[in-house]
Specification:
The structure is a homodimer.
Chain A lengths: L1 H12 L23 H9 L3 E3 L5 H18 L4 E2 L10 E6 L9 H10 L5 E8 L2 E8 L2 H16 L9 E3 L5 E5 L30 H12 L3 E3 L12 H14 L5 E6 L3 H4 L11 H17 L5 E4 L16 H12 L5 E5 L15 H9 L10 E6 L23 E6 L15 H8 L12 H5 L9 E5 L12 H15 L5 H12 L4 H22 L30 H5 L5 E2 L16 H8 L9 H4 L2 E2 L10 H24 L7 H33 L14 H6 L10
Helix pairs in contact in A: 3-5, 9-10, 12-15, 14-15, 15-16, 16-20, 20-21
């Protein structure tokens, strides 16, 4: 009976879900699949033609996207309505700055337009000369493109055309992807194949894929792309590579995406064109000024430079006794005449000057950058990772966010899952991004979330947001279906940091699978439990940096033999027979003091520290009493078991979705979930074996012993792991 | 008026060519596009249903391919006819070994079947129980699959169903691809992206692309795949990687493709599981026997090993004072109980033992292997490159083909264009393959082409054929549309070495673009001039090995500073003020003597040496009088200019095809041809500048001077060229 009812319901809703044609993921969330009959009829009446200026590449891109989307959803492309033709019912009218005559609610639209700024849009059903139209209005071309994508998104989600009324603008002016792509096409921390930039064939052979990249990013409002790895090579600034970047810029430009490059500090020295790389040396400054001029001759709207300097062996101004501001400002002055910017990374951590020196990697970026607050030129932004270590499954927000009120800051999120299971483990990062953006720094002793900091709520220094891309030449762009969701979520939060990650997941699932609760609800439920699952089976209770050497895949909490102490997992958890955790209170490194006093006080006391950060801030005995009454050891083990159980639950949830997802994507997700299940158990077993070894404690009652002895886990090696770490 | 006529003609033939939907090349030559109306009607009547046993994966694959192909061409998939159903008109009947009752010409079919062997097929229109059917008959499952593909090929080419009558079998039992794919997914000499084998995600996450790889190869009759680079790593024989190979083997098996691995000679030593790698050491032999047993437990039909030993720094039996036969036979004995084979590469060339020793790289494989003729175990084949240097645009056939009558030989062709312009230059290699296969070795002083040698026409030693694959994870598999043709041509010649390369090109073009003379004729004309064009603008008149160091891209005839003399281009052309060319006659290295006497005599005298091999065998003065009356210098320059002109002609030809090819593929080919044009001119200019510098001669009258001085060409550098050479 249940099956009969299900079939009837399927019939009512539309059987387009059952036996759906295989999809390879290339279309991302821009699938524009045929609508069910009733919706198709309604949309067809509301999309008879497109009336748009045909005068710029961006507006043409908007019109082309509308045509593509509507052709997919309706089965028929709408007509292009000539400029002076009489408007007819169902026209989609694109209006840039000037509204068409005869618009029913022109004043209201003008008021909205006045509030959406240079990149925003207004979309509404209205009447022009008495006939119903859809108006997409903006103050600029790019607003028309963003508005078109926003309208199409609503249609894909099943919203009736009459019900769509939008007025939106981005919260931040700088919303970029950072590609860690090397010039040999490998991708550092890339798990989606090689770089999408075919450097060898550029600039003369242009892969049409670059256009689809631009479309996908424009659909999210991403407006910048740093093309190459922060571990940069001097060659990227050679004439040959500038020409390649220019060719890419030409494809991205109509979609509102500017091109940026990561630059290596020592470039002029390596090219033997200067004798030093001292930023205060006039010859060096002159070289960079000439280089900037050269770049802007072929890329007039070049965005600027991203710089990793004096970090992990990269050269920088400190090599010459200068500081980060000296370096950043020199570059900034080379770019300023061209309106370019410098994004200078704060990801720095140095080995201790003396072997006995107490050193907390988590404290060093603050130590180096806080004193420089306010000392950067106007066109310099300081780019700060979400947390103070390195893109762990969970980190408290970086203290710098609350500590540099006079410097515009850029949030650096990692969309690619370097420490979270590559493209194998299903982990929805929207939860992680949201957690950081909503963190209240309490800077100035008032509510001041990280999002507000980026938006310039402190002293007016408007920053931006960057995502280390998970994009590669894999057919589905990101290596797995659900890793597409992380690109999507990053882009949506870059546009509006206040969006809810669950709502974003619902948008993504509706467009990527179907706007049907029978799919969306379970998919989103699975996504929303996935982040906490990975925290639990990898690094619960504030543990961090326990991944395998180099590739960062798989458990290796035992590693203690790397060249620098602060590369060893044991440095971060300090587990021994007495306890576990890193003391960042005044008794330890005192890194808590880098937070605002109210936050510092909360983190300074284990009793007030949220359990999810406990071992980030505290070194505690194994029998420390947790809020739930259990010992720390028992709780830790319980978290590991919970993580494994969560993955099993995710797998079971996914299996129920088989009737609703095409076989190809279904099977691929299922194979990955099965692998994630095995690996979650591996993480759990290896870590429990190790911590049991360190503590000497018996397993809590009823807990299953690890499948193998500790030595088995220690021996696991992965010589050819992707990501080139 | 002409346009009107053209449009009428287009309308008559079918307008499916005009405004064709963009294609990305993924479907290769298996596009199965909708037929024009008249042909569709005829085929629909002849393809109403498929009656096939449903009892093995291979037969199911055949039925699935028929269904796919017919659904594409007809717009409707034929029905699956149950086993005992009454046959109806238009059924496609698959018959393995046993013919169905009621077959009209059963005796004739049986006679054909008796002649097509274990892999062949018979396809004909006939009657069963009085109704017209298409019979696809074979002695084995794989013959049914090959027959199905052959029938579909004819249909795609527009042959009427009633006109298709085929009886065919492959000439060689071993028809393999060699992937030079590394375990980190890079591809040596690969220009089509990274390896298609996603090693990291194997064995548990299976890319559906592997199935399409299998289909493409089965459509050509390729029946083996060596998965990994001949510059092999010990890890490929680890349990983890054997499991990955087994997972691939499971996908390929239904398509008749066996999996092989390249193995590193020193593996047991590197794994510290033996103390030596001496092939005569019992512990070493025992190790390999155990390793073979291990492999066959998960891959019961594992093909065997491909071995590069004592070549270019790879370890081998000579490190222990043993010879190639000692090494090959030890491995062969490990594989023999499992019916596996060893393909032992003859690509060896050693630096001279003494600095003054005269050494001709082209002579060394013969010197090392000829004495071993007949000394290999039955399941060893010696794999020989098509020429004695290394996959140049033109080489005379390798002398070993006429010199090892008691050893089964494998031809090694290079399908990937290491020395022929990567995936940028359009070069149809069918011409090159055919030239080598039809070369008459005159072994035994009788007609004995290389093809006949491979087929065992000498002492019954049946060999095989191998192609170094040009396949990667690029969407179109091979990096460019026309590089697909080289995969296709290799496969067709592997099946039947007597096929004509122009006929193969027509097949390929008809399936890849459209079976329409307006497309096929110009496309094939372009393809058939392309090989000689590249010879002319790179290395005319028998010149060879002049490509850039490492990456082998671009002209570098001046290089003279590499660690080994026989790596330097100057070693190969020896151009100085007096002359140019490598003397391989008795006055020089006497490598000509490695050919049969009749051939050796022909090549020993410049007057009887074909001009295309002149400078391969002779060092001649610049004023040597060529058959056409011009001096060698003038002729050389003329060849360079002709090559450049040929590319311009190819470009012009392609431009005329714009109305007949989808925009996406058209533009991509056009961009590549434009790049090839620029690079042909670069080759021409650089080589003429250099040879002019060496010879001190003025340019022939009317010849355009190189665009830049010689130093400009010498300075060109390509630090990030693909192919990891």
């Amino acid at each position: 009976m249940a099956a009969f009812v299900l079939n009837v319901v399927l019939g009512l809703v539309g059987t387009h879900l059952a036996h759906a044609a295989d999809e390879d993921g290339y279309d991302l969330w821009l699938r524009y699949r045929a609508l069910p009959a009733a919706q198709k009829t309604a949309l067809a009446a509301a999309a008879t033609g497109i009336a748009a200026p045909d005068d710029t590449p961006t507006v043409r891109a908007a019109a082309a996207e509308l045509k593509r989307g509507l052709a997919g959803m309706l089965g028929r492309a709408p007509d292009a309505i000539p400029a002076n033709a009489k408007v007819r019912a169902g026209t989609i009218v694109l209006a840039r700055a000037t509204l068409p005559a005869g618009l029913a609610d022109a004043d209201a639209v003008r008021r909205d337009l006045a509030s959406v700024g240079s990149e925003g849009y207004v979309v509404r059903r209205t009447r022009q000369d008495g006939v119903p139209v859809t108006l997409i209005a903006a103050n600029s071309d790019i607003g028309l493109l963003y508005g078109s994508f926003a309208w199409l998104r609503q249609l894909q989600l099943g919203t009736a055309p009459d019900g769509i009324a939008l007025a939106d603008k981005p919260a931040l002016p700088l919303r970029v992807l950072n590609h860690w792509d090397n010039l040999d096409r490998t991708v550092e921390r890339g798990y989606a194949g090689e770089s999408i930039w075919n450097w060898w064939e550029l600039p003369n052979i242009i892969d049409p894929r670059y256009t689809d990249y631009a479309r996908a990013n424009a659909s999210l409002g991403i407006n910048g792309s740093v093309l190459n790895n922060v571990n940069a090579k001097a060659e990227v600034l050679s004439p040959a590579f500038i020409a390649k970047a220019a060719a890419i810029a030409n494809v991205l430009r109509p979609y509102g995406i500017r091109v940026y490059l990561s630059v290596r500090w020592s470039t002029p020295l390596e090219l033997k064109e200067t004798k030093t790389a001292d930023p205060l040396d006039p010859a060096v400054a002159a070289w960079w000024a000439r280089k900037a001029d050269e770049i802007y001759r072929t890329i007039p709207d070049f965005g600027g430079f991203l710089v990793k300097a004096n970090s992990e062996g990269q050269p920088g101004p400190q090599d010459y006794g200068r500081n980060h501001a000296d370096g950043a400002n020199m570059l900034a002055r080379a770019l300023a005449p061209h309106k370019g910017i410098v994004m200078w990374r704060a990801f720095v951590y140095s080995p201790p000057a003396h072997p006995n020196q107490v050193s907390d990697r988590a404290a060093q970026a603050y130590d180096q950058f806080k004193p420089l607050d306010g000392k950067f030129d106007k066109n310099v932004l300081v780019q700060v990772k979400n947390g103070a270590i390195d893109f762990q499954p969970r980190e408290p927000a970086h203290p710098l966010f609350g500590a540099m009120p006079d410097t515009p800051l850029v949030m650096e999120f990692q969309v690619t899952k370097e420490y979270l299971g590559f493209a194998t483990h299903l982990v929805y990062l929207g939860s992680l991004f949201q957690e950081t953006l909503r963190f209240d720094t309490r800077a100035g002793n008032q509510p001041m979330t990280v999002a507000r900091v980026l938006e310039g709520a402190q002293d007016g220094r408007v920053g931006g947001i960057a995502g280390v891309a998970n994009i590669g030449s894999s057919r589905n762009w990101t290596g797995s279906t659900f890793d597409q969701a992380n690109w999507y979520a990053y882009g949506r939060l870059a546009w509006n940091p206040d969006l809810d990650s669950r709502a974003i997941a619902r948008e993504w699932a509706g467009q990527t699978f179907a706007p049907d609760a029978r799919v969306v609800d379970p998919v989103v439920a699975m996504m929303m439990r996935s982040r906490e699952a990975v925290v639990d089976y990898m690094t619960p209770l504030g543990l961090h940096h326990m991944m395998g050497t180099g590739h960062h895949y798989g458990p290796a909490p035992w590693v203690d033999d790397l060249a620098r102490a602060d590369w060893n997992p044991v440095y971060y958890h300090r587990a021994d027979k007495n306890g576990i955790g890193f003391d960042r209170t005044a008794k330890g490194s005192n890194a808590v003091a880098q937070y605002a006093p109210e936050v510092a006080r909360r983190f300074a006391d284990p009793a007030t520290t949220p359990p999810e950060f406990l071992l980030w801030f505290h070194h505690l005995p194994w029998d420390y009493r947790m809020p739930d009454g259990r010992t720390l050891w028992t709780d830790l083990v319980a978290h590991y078991d919970h993580g494994v159980a969560e993955v099993a639950a995710m797998q079971a949830e996914w299996q129920r979705l088989r009737p609703f997802v095409d076989a190809r994507r279904f099977d691929d997700v299922a194979q990955r979930l099965a692998q994630q299940q095995r690996e979650a158990a591996w993480w759990r077993d290896a870590c429990i074996a190790y911590f049991q070894h360190q503590s000497g404690l018996p397993l809590p009652a009823g807990v299953r012993a690890p499948a193998q002895p500790l030595d088995y886990y220690r021996k696991q090696a992965f010589p050819f792991a992707p990501g080139h770490g």
